[in-house]
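Q: What would this complex look like in 3D?
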Amino acid sequence: MSKVVSAAQAVAMVDDGAHVAVQSMGTQGIPMTLVRELIRQSKQDLTITSVVAGIGIDWLAFAGVMSRFCGPIVSMERFGLCQGFRRGVEEGRIEFEEYSETGILARLSAGARNLPFGLTRGMIGTDLPALHPDTIREIEDPFTGERVLACRSLTPDVCFLHAHRADPLGNIQYDGGTIWPDVQIYPKACGKTIVTVEQIVSEEEVRERPQETVIPHFAVDAVVEAPHGCHPTSFFPDYVYDEAFHEQWVSLSRSAEQARAEIERLCAAEDQTAYLELIGEQALERTRNWRELA
Amino acid sequence: MSAQTQYTVDELMISALARELSDDDQVCNGAASFIPVCAFSLARATHAPKLVWLAGAVGLDARPRRVPASTLEAPLWHRSSMYMPQLEDFWSYALNGRWLTKFCVRGAQIDRYGNANNSVIGKDYNAPKVRLPGSAGLGDMGSIGKRLLYWTTTHNPRTLVERVDFVTCAGWLGGGSERSDLGLQGGPEIVITNLAVLDFEPESKRMRLCSVHPGVSVEDVVAATGFELVIEGEIPQTAPPSEQEVRLIREEIDPDGARMREFGG
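A: Here is my prediction, written as structure tokens for the whole assembly.
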């Protein structure tokens, strides 16, 4: 049975108030097709988890669809702070539930393995644990008495990922680069898994290269074909981030009004094909030629 | 000869940081870390060719042709010998204790005991004056036994503060034995700024002035620091970069000047 659906159908699976884990590493690998669709469907009161949230969360913050971020960092790296998100927190509209990287990963890993909590030695001595009496507790190692932090299991409702290929069954393949924690952990910890891919291929093509399959079909709920689906962020090795786009966003996002108008313009595209037309082939081609940057 | 070498403060900081690294060290870098990435490359090109470097915490012993505009993205991982999977591999090697024993830290605030803040400016965490990016791996690296090397290009009383508004990265905490009493190994060792090199007095763990950069006086450093520094005896000048180091940085390591992004460039 095929799991291939449209972005609109996939995102219809997300309820208002849901906790959504979104693949993201600063300027890398954000499934932006699904991010835009959350805004198109005017979702409300979402909690977002990412390892390093980037431009996608800034759009969600400006568009007013999120009320909480649960994770370690929000930054567009060289492009600086996400202004919409930052203002949302400073003005009390968005809560930042901040953990260290091993803290959030311990919570998700416990969720993935159906354990009550994960462990870390990170955050000890910092002010982070005291922010979270309901999810982080200092405990004693029962064997040695040493100090360690218990990090309560976290199981978000749904996760968004982006990959190179999938077959219609939902076997997900990657072309190398590093394997980010998102890919390894979200499908196991989250209630539902929605994956956009550069390309849908046949089951036979997947079987020719099983070593490239990183998520099995049984853990995947929906597959959406979205070529260049991380634009304006990068997706190794296919394309790098769109520098001009990010720089323009940095400039626009100084004004909430301008930022919202830009988001509205980009989210008006009803699907990925329409979005890519809006961006223009020239801009996309520049991001494919990233190797000259190395 | 080096007295005549023309250099700028970015090159001096890179050279000073590179000298803290040896062939036996293993390092990784995080986001927007241009000074450390240049220093790792310089150390590998000069006195520490065997320095192990995980570029962007991903690319093992990468050989980028030059420092690119991002210290996390694929161009920095160029010609790596391995792409490190993050969840199981990177964090396991980092948490294990045997590997990746030094980590470079920059904070929006660094205090007299080497605690760093990258979370919020303002005393009320839930209503911050400025919401900073957040912990990322900083909240881990200060607690898991790493030897911490700090850098900042903004040595002023807003960055170097008496007490950070929020401890994102555990330094010497309240000083003295407070860190070791919690069972934490490692800790802050050195602070390289645009004005001076500093370390921590071994007993009190208070920040101590080691050397001032050429052209900077001890008084300049005192005025630019938001707390009382430990100053013992005559303070020497920071050794300037050699002619060879300056040439390597300018011509081979970072010809595009990506490092100037850390100076608002």
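A: To summarize the key features: The longest helix of chain B spans residues 34-45. Chain B touches chain A through 53 residues (CB under 8 Å).
Q: Very helpful, thank you.
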